[in-house]
Write a structure and sequence with these properties.
single chain; 309 residues; Trna Endonuclease, Chain: A, domain 1; 2 domains; 14 helices; elongated
């Protein structure tokens, strides 16, 4: 936004007068200024607060004007904040309070005449600041997400060359927990129910998923899929399952399980997970595509590479 609208000397003079009289005590004035000049408190840090109110106000406004390219939004905010004053009861309680309140009200009324043309500009500036802050927050979140994915990818590749498959399986559960947490999927760690071990659970698109994780040197057989499907079948009807086998699934297992399954279990392999960790697709997009494919065609094992073909 180009700030080509200048604040007239008359408006500056009215601001100085109103700001000097709306507070009787310098400490109250100081608190007010610190609330308004929140982005450039260094200006207030060099003010001599033992000086008179009029000199303090003149100094603050001078410094805001001198650095107008940086501080114009603050000067404008101060102008509008003072012009918004309507309650002068804090002055009325003082000695000769009615006269002090009358003087302050007249000064604010005089300032208000100069502010009318700046109120929309202030609104635009505030909206621009909110957009900048929102964009910065979004960028910070993206940077944190990227750093987390880099760390998880390094962890995954480190465990992929480890000969201890059982420890790798436990590490994979931790990696997945952090991945689901990153995407706000409300993950739960492994837990036991009566006679059953569940590797984890998470929520996605208002549906509850149980998680099964295998990291072996061989493909997952039909018996493991049937066992997991049985766990899902003993839960509420809207409970789904995600079976992640890093080494994939045997062809016979996929064919037989797909024919016999009630389509409540989605399948995911190591190449799918690597695509997520390498930021080629998000875990939420991957799950959405898998869930849609299963619903529309009955295919519970849509691979990332097939999505891209």
């Amino acid at each position: 936004m180009v700030l080509n609208k200048k604040i007239s000397p008359q408006a500056i003079g009215a601001l100085e007068e109103a700001l000097t009289v709306i507070y009787w005590y310098k400490n109250d004035l100081k608190k007010f200024l610190y609330r308004i000049i929140d982005e450039h408190k260094e200006i207030l840090a060099v003010i001599n607060w033992d000086d008179s109110k009029r000199n303090i106000v003149a100094r603050v406004i001078y410094m805001l004007e001198r650095n107008e390219e940086r501080t114009f939004p603050i000067l404008l905010r101060l102008l509008c904040a003072v012009s918004d004053f309507v309650d002068f009861s804090h002055l009325q309680r003082l000695e000769n309070g009615k006269e002090k309140a009358k003087q302050a009200k007249e000064a604010v009324d005089a300032l208000r005449m100069h502010v009318l043309g700046f109120q929309n500009l202030q609104k635009e500036l505030e909206e621009a600041r909110e957009r900048r802050e929102k964009n910065q927050k979004h960028q910070d979140e993206l940077n944190r997400a990227k750093q987390t994915l880099v760390k998880l990818k390094e962890e995954f590749y480190r465990w992929s060359i480890d000969s201890d498959r059982q420890s790798s399986g436990y590490a994979l559960e931790t990696i997945l927990y952090q991945l689901f947490e990153l995407y706000d999927l409300d993950p739960k760690g492994s837990f036991k129910t009566i006679g059953e071990q569940i590797d984890g659970a998470f929520s996605f698109n208002h549906e509850e998923y149980l998680l099964e994780v295998k990291w072996r040197n061989k493909q997952t057989p039909l018996s493991d899929l049937d066992s997991f499907s049985g766990k899902i079948g003993r839960k509420f009807e809207n409970t789904l399952g995600l079976f992640i086998s890093i080494s994939g699934f045997s062809n016979d297992a996929i064919i037989q399980f797909r024919n016999n399954s009630d389509k409540r279990v989605l399948l995911m392999d190591g190449m799918d997970l690597i695509a997520v960790l390498e930021e080629r697709i998000s875990i939420t997009e991957l799950l959405t595509r898998k869930r849609r494919e299963a619903s529309q065609t009955g295919n519970i094992y849509l691979k990332y590479q097939d999505m891209m073909s």
